[in-house]
Amino acid sequence: MPRSPLPKNEVLPVQPHTGGLLLQLPGTAGLLTVAALGIALLLVLIIKVRLQPFVALLAVSLTSGSRNGTP
User: Fold this and answer.
1) Helix locations, the chain, DSSP H
2) pLDDT value at position 57?
3) Which residue, of 1, 49, 68, 70, is most buried by count of CB atoms within 10 Å of its CB?
């Protein structure tokens, strides 16, 4: 009979949510960084690229949501 790699009463540690950022900033710092980058991207898309505000907001919300780990 094969042995289990962990004893039955031992639990694996849970990794904290990192915000899904490429730099993997821990917890709240990663979420705030993604929010700040999203606002900056929104302003660039509206002011420099001259994209319609609704389309820019839709694109930024989908991008920041996926970076935060939202399915």
Assistant:
1) 27-47, 53-67
2) 97
3) 68
Reading phi first (left if > 0) and then psi (alpha if -120 to 50, else beta), residue 27 is in: left
Whether residue 48 lies inside any domain: the answer is yes
What is the model's pLDDT at position 21?
A: 47
Residue 59 confidence (pLDDT): 95
Structural domain contains residue 5: no
Q: Classify residue 51: in a domain, yes or no.
A: yes
- Give the domain range for residue 51: 42-71
> Using N-to-C axis directions, what is the helix angle for 53-67 and 27-47, rounded to 10°?
160
- At 67, is the secondary structure helix, strand, or coil? helix
Distance (Å, whole) CA 25 – CA 33: 8
Q: What are 2-40's pLDDT values in tens digits?
A: 666 656 666 666 665 555 545 556 678 878 888 899 999
Number of domains in the chain: 1
